[in-house]
Amino acid sequence: MHYLKFLAALTALCVTSTSATCFSSGASWVGKDLAREKLRDACNELDGTYDAGEVYSVCRDTPRQKYIFEVRNLNGNAVSLSYDACVANLKRQIDNCSRGGYETFGGVRFKADPNDGDC
Description:
Elements: H1 2-15, E1 18-22, H2 32-46, E2 48-50, E3 55-61, E4 66-73, E5 79-81, H3 83-96, E6 101-105, E7 108-115
Antiparallel strand pairs: 1-6, 2-5, 3-4, 4-7, 6-7
Helix pairs in contact: 2-3
């Protein structure tokens, strides 16, 4: 029984393609806790339905830099993005990439990018 559950989970991972890229230059996160807080606020605007090819970006200022969070639907059809999925997918770019980055999951690209200056 455990073997079947494992096989089903492995199959699901193979069917859903994921690719992640960390930026190699540019500003680094100044305070990852603050970035996560700003991300949770940004996902209140980023969750919802995205038509094919639609992109939405929000910018959040901090005392020392700005954070840009972006979601882009690369699919040929509309997709729905929940608040929790928004936070989880963009949070990986904060946690795993010192200068931000982007990841495509299920045909949706999630980008989190710290920058100098204001929004």
